[in-house]
Amino acid sequence: MPTSASQSPAERLFRAGGFTFFFFIVEFSAGWYCGSMAIVSEAMTLLVDVLGFLVAFTAVKIAERESTNEYTWGLKRAEIIGALITILLNWILALGLFEEGFFLLQTPEPVEAHVMLITASVDLVRSVAMILLLKGPSEHVSSSYEQVEELPVHLTATKYAASNINVMVAVVNTIADLMGSLSIVLAALLLLWKPDWVILDPLCTLLVGTVTLLAPFALLGRNLRVLLEGTPMHLDIEAIKSTLLMIPAIKNIDLIRVWSLTEGRDCCAVVLSVCEDDIQKIHVLESFNEKSDMGNAIHVDTVDWSLRQKDSTERRKEFRDSYNDVIALVRHRLQSIYGIEDTFVEVKML
Fold first, then answer.
1. What is the edge-to-edge ordering of all strands in the sheet holding 265-274?
2. Other Cβ atoms within 10 Å of 87 Cβ, number
3. What is the spatial distance between Cα 209 and Cα 217, in angstroms, rounded to a whole number?
């Protein structure tokens, strides 16, 4: 059986969905038996998690489809849409929990604290197991970076470890479930001590609703930034410019645009001005000792040769190799240091 680290995001989401559905049945039955609305509300969060896993699994599968003439970039942003649908489901559930919680505050009922404690404790273990199941080699609740030491200290950049946004949403939701279960465990312990404190049960329901409402905000901004084609949060435009200007022959960055196709797959379009005199004097790749496989991770590249002077065919061919070295080095730098996979380069000669 493959470990979670070797499974694809779709496989982890599918297994997590089945695992969660089983515990939903157990927890809902236990909550109904002991009369605890807090347990029932926690079970309902599991049901919404199951729906979220189904949406996320579908979104990931759609995003894996190849590009077509109609969708030349493929359907990568289906992952973002799936994550937003999951967030919306959580908000709808939170509103329902608030309504039921405020109603029970007016007429609280006694609960079976022993069953409540056992059920919530089991759910705590389930939540921890779920996080371990969902967490893969590069999926983290917070962004993970790997230090790159190819540049001087003041220009050292960080390399972003790509994550699947649907898995990240699932992990955040599971952490929210864990917090809700912990609050129910504490409430059950207090009810064992003071059985007449029955108001603790609807208070826990309201707390679970609050956590369910607020947890998705941790990733909502990242989803919207991708949809609006904003600069990825982990990238600094000025640092990228400084990195490129360290390459010999590049004198100016005329234009730079950075955006994300989906979470973990960044794109960059850059227009460079190079000096004709400098480009004839250097061998760019030799001076930087770049690896031979520099172009392996680059998916797309377009080059516009804009020469401001009327050169002969022989001279153009002579310069072309040097330009290719500069472009290859730009692509490699952006990919190896910043994790930018899709690079579009236009070169102009001064």
1. 250-262, 265-274, 340-349, 305-306
2. 19
3. 14
Phi, psi of 248 (to 5 degrees): -55, 145
Cα–Cα distance measured from residue 237 to residue 253, given in angstroms and rounded to the nearest whole number: 11
> In DSSP terms, which residues pair with 274 in a beta bridge?
250, 349
Give me 3's structure tokens.
């470990």
Question: What is d(CA 46, CA 28) in angstroms, rounded to the nearest whole number?
Answer: 9
Q: What are phi and psi of 298, to 5 degrees?
A: -90, 125
Place of tokens 């049945």: 25
The helix/strand/coil state of 205 is helix
Does pLDDT of 86 surpass 80? Answer: yes
Cα 19 from Cα 130, distance rounded (Å): 8
- For residue 105, give the H/E element and its range: helix 78-106
Query: Where do runs of H (alpha helix) occur along the chain?
Result: 9-34, 37-63, 78-106, 113-134, 165-193, 200-214, 217-227, 237-245, 276-281, 284-288, 313-338
How confident is the model over 182-240, as pLDDT tens digits? 888 898 888 888 888 888 888 888 888 898 899 888 788 888 998 888 998 888 999 99
**Which residues have a Cβ under 8 Å from the Cβ of 230 and sit 6 or more positions away?**
259
| Closest alpha carbon to 249 in 323, 167, 169 | 323
Cα dihedral 114, 116, 117, 119 sign: positive
Please answer whether residues 174 and 17 qualify as being in contact, where contact means their C-beta atoms are separated by less than 8 angstroms. Answer: no
Cα separation, 195 vs 185, in Å, equals 14
Looking at the chain, the number of H-run helices and the number of E-run strands are 11, 6
* pLDDT tens-digit map of 272-319: 888 766 655 544 444 434 433 433 333 333 334 344 444 455 555 555
The answer to whether the CB of 39 falls within 8 A of the CB of 187 is: no
Q: Which amino acid is at 186?
A: L
Closest C-alpha among 306, 44, 2, 331 to residue 173: 44
345: three-class secondary structure by DSSP: strand
Token pair of 331 as six digits? 């692509």
Q: Return the bridge partners of 349, or none.
A: 274
**Phi/psi at 159 (nearest 5 deg)?**
-105, 125
User: What pairing do the DSSP bridges indicate for beta strands 305-306 and 340-349?
Assistant: parallel
